[in-house]
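Reminder to self: tokens first, then the designed residues, so the page reads top to bottom the way the pipeline ran.
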């Protein structure tokens, strides 16, 4: 076995980066995929989540295998600059993604029924708020507020559909 310091360093980088990648895949499968929501029957959604879990965990297992192979056998191709650079970047991206997804994302696949339900609840909240204020012309105020909420909703729908490359219906 080659104990050259550069080889040992390359092996360490290959092993560490692949273990980080494996941890990232496992994290996505265990923490992110279960948060998927879709406009699918519950059986379809469960199947989607299960397939995501299996996919990401088997990806993790592949990278654990690569780490063990790099450590035990030290094949030249796994110690090449290209392999080390790609896997180091991927190894750093995995935990970064998990941290950012946890901090900033509400991971949902666009669900029209959910969105329409939220919009209906918001309209009901506005209606209740207007009725509580006992304004002189509550009906006119109510109509104005509902129109505002509907316009906001239409703009949001267009934004979501544009992002998805769809046309509004």
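Designed residues (169 positions):
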């Amino acid at each position: 076995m080659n104990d050259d310091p550069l080889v040992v360093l390359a092996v360490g980088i290959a092993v560490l980066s692949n273990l980080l990648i494996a941890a990232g895949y496992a994290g996505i499968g265990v923490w992110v995929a279960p948060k998927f929501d879709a406009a699918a029957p519950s059986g379809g959604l469960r199947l989607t989540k299960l397939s995501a879990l299996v996919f990401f965990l088997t990806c993790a297992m592949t990278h654990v295998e690569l780490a063990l192979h790099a450590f035990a056998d030290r094949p030249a191709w796994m110690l090449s600059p290209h392999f080390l650079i790609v896997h180091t970047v991927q190894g750093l991206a995995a935990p970064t993604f998990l941290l950012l997804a946890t901090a900033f994302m509400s991971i949902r696949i666009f669900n029209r029924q959910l969105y329409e339900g939220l919009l209906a609840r918001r309209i009901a909240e506005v209606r209740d708020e207007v009725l509580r204020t006992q304004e002189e012309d509550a009906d006119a105020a109510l109509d104005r507020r509902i129109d505002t909420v509907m316009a906001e909703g239409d703009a949001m729908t267009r934004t979501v559909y544009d992002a998805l490359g769809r046309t509004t219906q």
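The chain has two domains: 5-104, 112-164.
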